[in-house]
Amino acid sequence: MAHAATAEELFQELKRMPTTERQKFFVLLSTKAFHGEDLNHEELFGHLAGDEFTAQEAAEYLEVSMSTFRRMVASGRLQPSATVGRSQLFAAPDLKNFKRALKTAKG
Q1: 60 and 91 share a domain?
Q2: Per-residue DSSP letters for 43-85?
Q3: Residues spanned by the domain of 7
Q4: 4 vs 39, more confident
Q5: Residue 43 has pLDDT above 60, yes or no
Q6: How many domains is the chain built from?
């Protein structure tokens, strides 16, 4: 009997995948996997609601460069939810609200 991968196993495998292959995977996923489905933000990302993102992950989520992200933090526009050593973590709900505000400001 074939072993079905768990979500955690798949996630760990994706982390080990070379960046170019990971990008190809997500293109395939976005263009083919949910074709015809009308999933809302909560259905796709609801499991992340309580998670914290690293600065790099947060910058990627906000679709800004790391230097732009760091300027946002330094200016106080974004506040980390936790600091571990020198690493800052950012709460997913805060990032979601901030991203919504950015989109509204851009029009």
Answers
A1: yes
A2: HHHGGGTT-EEEHHHHHHHHT--HHHHHHHHHTTSS--SEEET
A3: 1-35
A4: 4
A5: yes
A6: 2
